[in-house]
Design goal:
With 169 residues, the protein is an alpha+beta fold. It has four helices and five strands. A hairpin with a 6-residue loop joins strand 2 and strand 3. Helix 1 runs antiparallel to helix 4 and helix 2 crosses helix 3. The chain is globular, with a radius of gyration of 16 Å. The chain starts with 6 loop residues before the first helix and ends with a strand. This is Inovirus Gp2 family protein.
Length: 169
């Protein structure tokens, strides 16, 4: 991952990442994660850990007969130097929460637990510090809300400027 250098290019890149995610998934979910410190390789380790834990969750859901939709993990991270590590994870909500078979609040709690667990795995020295997590949702199946939700998500992504972006299939 390389930091984006030109401010205009950064804004366009973030717009593209958010728009592609919204276009791809009717129920997009975003998690703004604030990790308490930034050390060497924190971002890469956290992304890899989340990817593995999410993969385990998908396998568990499939084994129990629950419907699981594919997703691409899109990340937008605040570029260093920063005291904390802030990142936005964008993904398909239907990967971990099917609207007909799951309770949304329970699904969100499951993902928040997964993100907290990923944090503990990458930094075992500060177990008492938990990441702050904020939720952003763009549900295009509810058009009366989706424009406002999209604006909130995009503003969240812009708050990470200067930014670094990454995709994980």
């Amino acid at each position: 991952m390389e930091p984006l250098t030109d401010k205009r290019a950064e804004i366009q890149q973030i717009k593209r990442v958010v728009q592609q995610a919204v276009d791809q998934y009717p129920r997009l979910i975003g998690f703004l994660i604030t990790l308490p410190n930034r050390v060497q390789n924190t971002v890469q380790l956290f992304q890899n850990t989340v990817y593995q834990l999410l993969n385990d969750l998908v396998v568990t859901r499939q084994m129990s007969g629950k419907q699981v939709s594919p997703t691409i993990l899109r990340w937008v991270w605040e570029a260093p130097p920063a005291q904390v590590c802030r990142g936005l994870l964008l993904m398909n909500q239907d990967t971990f929460c099917h609207p007909r078979h799951d309770i949304f609040v329970d699904c969100i709690e499951t993902i928040e637990v997964l993100l907290h667990k990923a944090r503990r795995i990458i930094n075992r020295t500060q177990l008492d510090i938990t990441p702050r997590i904020s939720l952003y949702r763009v549900d295009r199946t509810r058009p009366e809300q989706s424009d406002t939700q999209y604006t909130h998500l995009q503003n969240c992504a812009f708050s990470l400027l200067p930014a670094v972006t990454a995709l994980r299939l």
